[in-house]
Amino acid sequence: MICYVLKRITFALLSVFAVLTVVFFVMRVLPGDPVLLIVGFDANSTQISIMREELGLDDPMIVQFANYLKGFVTGNLGVSIRHGTSVIQEIAMASSHTLALVALAFPAIVAIGICVGVLAAYKQDSFLDHSLMAVAVVGVCIPPYFLALLLMLLFSVQLRWLPAIGAGSILHLILPSLTLAAISGASVSRTTRACVAECLNSDYVRTALAKGLSRNAVLIRHALRSTLPPIITAIGLQVAYMLGGAALVEVVYAYPGIGWLLVESISARDFPVIQAAVIYVASVTILVNLGVDFSYALADPKIRKGGS
User: Fold this and answer.
1) Which of 70, 139, 173, 200 has the fewest Cβ atoms within 10 Å of its own Cβ atom?
2) Does residue 200 contact residue 288 with C-beta atoms inside 8 Å?
3) Which stretches in the chain have pLDDT values below 70?
């Protein structure tokens, strides 16, 4: 168990370092000069040279990379070109909005995904099964921005129950979280249904039923327990997607989360924020996957006993 945990932590740290390296060097080879965005395109060569020296862009690339790693460790990722505020401050503000959105959507995703998937598997090949999975397929296939527009049209324009855009109160969270819960919950339900149905058709489940156990007992004691790892993976992927900023959903609702921040920064060519936001999204995905690996260790006795 300890070796498993240490191995996963090492892989996670190496992955974060790889992301840092790739993002740093890719941002340096992209067209466009961030100095011109700061001093203005009508600045003279002296002003440009002074600004490049202040930003450390005249240093060798390896020195710039070392300074960036130092800034990452110490929490200093530079200053936003657009607003002149700390990049860390902008990332923290946007991620707090995204976390609030995820906190509201996550219980619904788990409830919809697991309950609908288990019910469909329990009633597999019935009308209820086909109906639930048809709805789930629609939920997976429908574009997030289109569903967001439909919900906005219904609840904001027609019924006038909820605000359509912005943030500031719990009411602003409902439509974005409902959009994410519907799409992510549909994906989790399809995975849950497939795993539980396969388990219910396995030999050991038929043996348990032949020994006199009720179908409900077999479902709870055997099927759900053995299918936890793939279900946890499906939920983890959806959480990583949301924590990384569901950009399409946040843009439609003008919700100031991390996805909205990234899109706005790309439009304004705010390189420091773009760089930090990409690293944040990648790091969150890596950390969620690490959490999923730890969940495996709790759900799978083989891993707890020393498996890899």
Assistant:
1) 70
2) no
3) 1, 31-34, 36-41, 54-57, 244-245, 297-308
CB atoms within 10 A of CB 111: 13
Q: What is the pLDDT, as a whole number, of residue 3?
A: 78
3 state DSSP class of 15:
helix
Instruction: Give CA angle at 178 (175, 180), nearest 5°.
Output: 110
Domain boundaries, the chain: 2-74, 88-304
**pTM of the predicted protein model:** 0.76
Q: Is residue 298 within 8 Å of 110, Cβ to Cβ?
A: no
Q: In whole angstroms, give the CA distance from residue 292 to residue 151.
A: 31
Contacts of 243 (CB under 8 A, 6+ apart): 98, 99, 102, 258, 284, 285, 288
Q: Where are the alpha helices (DSSP H) in 201-300?
A: 203-210, 215-218, 224-226, 228-243, 247-252, 258-268, 271-299
Backbone angles phi and psi of 300, in degrees to 5 = -110, 110
- 194: closest CA among 136, 108, 142? 136
198-218 core/surface letters (b: 16 or more CB in 10 A; e: else): bbbeeeebeebeeeeeeeeeb
Count other C-beta atoms under 10 Å from residue 154's C-beta. Answer: 13
pLDDT value at position 307? 52
